Amino acid sequence: MKTFDFIIVIKKNSNKRINSISQLMLFLTILAFFGTSIVEPQKSISVIALTILIAIWWLFCLNQIKRNIEPSFRLGLLMAAIGWYTQKGGIYISVIYLLAAALEKQVKFQEEIAFDETEIVINSFPKKKYLWNELKNVVIKDGLLTLDFNNNKLFQKVIDSEVAPSLEQEFNTFAQQQLTNK
């Protein structure tokens, strides 16, 4: 495992949009499965059981939101993917739900930017790596991290917590050394 000289945690954006999309997907699944249990009574017991499990998980997640805990809709989305797979013609919808379940954690992960003597790694999705020779300037000032690229691209992010002036100076000195050594 690689060790980095500095790891900067970026202020996290709200996950309300992601949570809303997950809830909409669960709602549509519950609606569709309820309709299936009416149209195809021979499947009704298994479909109703899965629908109840999805609804219980959704309610659990809503309770977490009320308690200011970040919910994870992955299990509900995974159950929905399994349910859609059993539906006639539902394989493509199942794949969409499976992808949503697999990617939910990654898109909610707090962004970090790691710096060492050879590269800068941003743990976003997908992970991005930059070499120091791709940059003109790197600086932390007033709680803002700025990466100024040679191609005139500017990357600015607010840092999650307050940075002590001594640590800010140490980082800026490190960055300037890497930029002059490129």
Describe what you observe in this structure.
The chain has 182 residues and is of the alpha+beta class. The protein has helices at residues 16-39, 44-66, 74-86, 91-108, 165-181; strands at residues 6-9, 112-115, 119-122, 128-131, 135-141, 144-149, 154-158. Strands 1-2-3-4 form a four-stranded antiparallel β-sheet, with no helix packed on it. Strands 5-6-7 form a three-stranded antiparallel β-sheet. Helix 1 (16-39) packs antiparallel against helix 2 (44-66). The longest helix is centred in the first third of the chain and has 24 residues, at 16-39.
Distance between the termini: 24 Å
Count of β-strands: 7
Kindly estimate the percentage of residues that lie in beta strands according to DSSP: 15-25%
What oligomeric state do the depicted chains represent? single chain
Mean pLDDT: 90
Shape: elongated
H and E order: EHHHHEEEEEEH
Number of contiguous helices:
5
Helicity level, as a percent range?
A: 40-55%
Give the strand line-up of the largest sheet.
Answer: 1-2-3-4
Look at the helices and sheets and give the structural class: alpha+beta
Low-confidence stretches: none
* Number of spatially distinct domains: 2
Largest sheet: 4 strands, antiparallel
Rg for CA atoms: 23 Å
Sum this structure up briefly:
By secondary structure, the chain is of the alpha+beta class. It has five helices and seven strands; from the N terminus they run βααααββββββα.
Could you name the key traits of this structure?
2 domains; four-stranded antiparallel β-sheet; PH-domain like; single chain; 7 strands; 182 residues; alpha+beta
